[in-house]
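Task: complex structure prediction.
Instruction: return structure tokens for all chains below.
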Amino acid sequence: MIRIQSEAFDPASELALLVARAPASGAVVSFVGLVRASEGDVAALELQHHPVLTAASVEAIASAGRDRFELDGLTVIHRFGRLSPGEPIVFVAAAAAHRRVAFDAVDYLMDRLKTEAVFWKREHGPGGSRWVEARDKDYDDHSRWGNA
Amino acid sequence: MRVSFYGKLADVFGESERLVDCPREGIEADDLRRRLAGDDRALLAQLFDVKVRLVVNDIIVRGVPLLRPTDEVAFLPPVSGG
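Output:
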């Protein structure tokens, strides 16, 4: 299940839904990305999206994940709009027969989402706002998986 | 021709969308970039940045296509998800 939405979501219920949909799986791994609160001066994170290309990019990444790993179930949820520190931005969960495949699938999907999902991030703070681009580290992480 | 700007490009242009006069025979993408930038060399450099992607009718295109008056064009700066 793939969703792009502005509404908040509850990671625990999304995880429970995936577990219920994949009763024969031996492993379910989930990742929740949150708006970082540690920097202190970020009052909000704005995620801009494209009406067509954002969903298409996330679908393509999820589809590549399904092709690459043998999964029994997959959930990808990505928010857009204005988010507050501590709020979930992204949720990726994969169900598989064994844990290694589920771990790797989620790791792979997150590395691709960080660098390829069509979103633009802007941090709003007391001193104004700034656009945030993917870091070199994000591209390094992505390159671990080869060209796929 | 409707031209949209996303992310930091919308800030640079001060608007997320602009209507541009386009000749009936069309305009090359690079000519559109020059027209949008006007005399602003920094803006011109941004529009020609290899990391900025050109989208025509919701499809990312490479090269220098000929754009038609009815095309919907968008410029996308580098993305950052997750």
